[in-house]
């Protein structure tokens, strides 16, 4: 056996990997779930090209006039079936030829129907010979970085780092305590710090796989921008993961049963899922609770990720969130080392 | 074991020859309102296999965990291999092997991975292969711990205690919960370790285990050592080599015949409420019984009389005659060689397994 194979830190870290990789559920929650979530949200909130609006007219002449507009899909139907189609939502507007002009039947509370009314009337007027008094030109802008998927990916990244660190550390430690394995470990000459360090080391390696897989997917499939330095983004990921690992260590430092631990984890994570701006901006919460919201580690992490990825902000301008994360790393770690229950 | 250590083991001039492997002086430990260990002194010589014996709750595990440096004593000194936990803990951890009660190793690691992990904690020790061989887990080397039987798991725990090639080995109830075959298998393993000259300290509440494995035993009850010596010495204190147990009824009461379980119950006590059997108590004069030559002592526990006797072959006919003269009829009768169980019963008036 080589030097490395004899090192207890290496063996402890390898044991963590083996245990994690033999836990199919863990693989799903850490690697697959965030990608599925991003894919689902990306599809649900994608910016669709302007829809073609279904309309109908009672004469073929009118139908032809309406079809001239690319934004309208016109069919010819008699008034009775047209009214029925309107009622069932199959069409948004029915243009009826009257002796002295055209009557539009539509629901003015439906924005799409109002758009259809504007497009239809313009098409009818143009067909009748009206010309624009002012020359107009359209310049279309679809900017990446301002879409919902661009907003939500950094949030999902933060949420995922929180979950994998707290669950990964918390459950493993409490299970080892419950099964008296912790006690067995400290009954051996194993240096105690190495046991905790093996969790952080394995977390760091998993982190690389986890972050690269998730951000790679978001970048390739949705074109989510990476405007800041990737090294700095990497640093932010490590810092975030370590801060949440420290929190996970604190949560699991006393708990004797899995039930107690999972209750504590939910207590810690649930407020952050809601308050920390994963799915919508944290600034929507009232000003009174803003100081609390901003002090949460996930808020700081999400803010830093968004600033780096979407605005390309340099680390030097992210002192506040980095400071908050460092505090969340140092304090829980120090406290949990003091109160950790080894048996 | 050589003569010198054997003398040391029986408490002779141990200190002048060799430092004891374990030395306990005035040990006390209380949990909340329970005095788990209540003033204990003990010496275990190097090379000895020493047993801490007692019912559940006697303080065995607390004592052994204090020795293992896992529990802080309230009072008293513990010295292992000439070192103690306050100063020599680092070195001690390297030199002792520990098997705890009910450790569950991670289910999803293999036997070999688990041993490799534990081996990495020790500076010196035996190879992983050797530990697997010693624990006879060759066929299970690549199997996950979760798929092992109870006996195999216990042998894995033993192998984890052995990888550091310890001078002093602690085994806390190594066979509790195992079936008889797995238990014998583990005993053979302990025998090998004894032959290799290791000092072993084990706890058990199985008397036959202590008799089978230990050079010396300390019987514990309520946190104290109530008897100490070789199993033979302790059994000799019962006063006779054999134990006679019987129950009587008046001869007028028709006897339903000997229930079948009596033949099986060679050892131990089926208890007063043995199923399908009702005792009608006869009045036995204890003084008349102890007056019989060969009867050393008499006690009665829930209508079951126990005599410790010597020279069974001549004494038993006298007992029959004495009971018949009283007009009493035997409804139960059995004998067995005296065991550590009888020592415990004599010392405490309770049965070990009643707890």
Tell me briefly what this model is.
Chain A is of the alpha/beta class and 343 residues long. Helices cover 66% and strands 6% of the residues of chain A. The longest helix of chain B has 16 residues, at 180-195.
Attribute tags:
heterodimer, A: 343 residues, alpha/beta, four-stranded mixed beta sheet, B: 355 residues, four-stranded antiparallel beta sheet
Describe the overall structure.
The complex is a heterodimer of chains A (343) and B (355). By secondary structure, chain A is an alpha/beta fold. Helices cover 66% and strands 6% of the residues of chain A. Chain A has 14 helices and 4 strands. A 4-stranded mixed β-sheet of chain A has the order 2-1-3-4, sandwiched between helices. Chain B is an alpha/beta fold and 355 residues long. In chain B, 34% of the residues lie in helices and 26% in strands. A 6-stranded mixed β-sheet of chain B has the order 5-6-7-3-8-9, with helices on both faces. Chain B has a 4-stranded antiparallel β-sheet with strand order 11-12-10-13. In chain B, strands 2-1-4 form a 3-stranded antiparallel β-sheet, with helices on one face. In chain B, strand 6 (168-172), helix 8 (180-195) and strand 7 form a beta-alpha-beta unit. Chain B is elongated. At the A-B interface, helix 2 and helix 8 of A face helix 4 and helix 5 of B.
Q: What would the average pLDDT of chain A be, to the nearest integer?
A: 89
Q: Helix share of residues of chain B?
A: 25-40%
The structure class of chain A reads: alpha/beta
Strand order, main sheet of chain B: write it out: 5-6-7-3-8-9
Total strand count of chain A, please? 4
What structural class results from the helix and strand content of chain B?
alpha/beta
Radius of gyration of chain B, in angstroms, nearest whole number:
24 Å
| Count of helical stretches of chain B | 14
State the strand order across the main sheet of chain A: 2-1-3-4
Number of strands of chain B: 13
Strand content of chain A: 5-15%
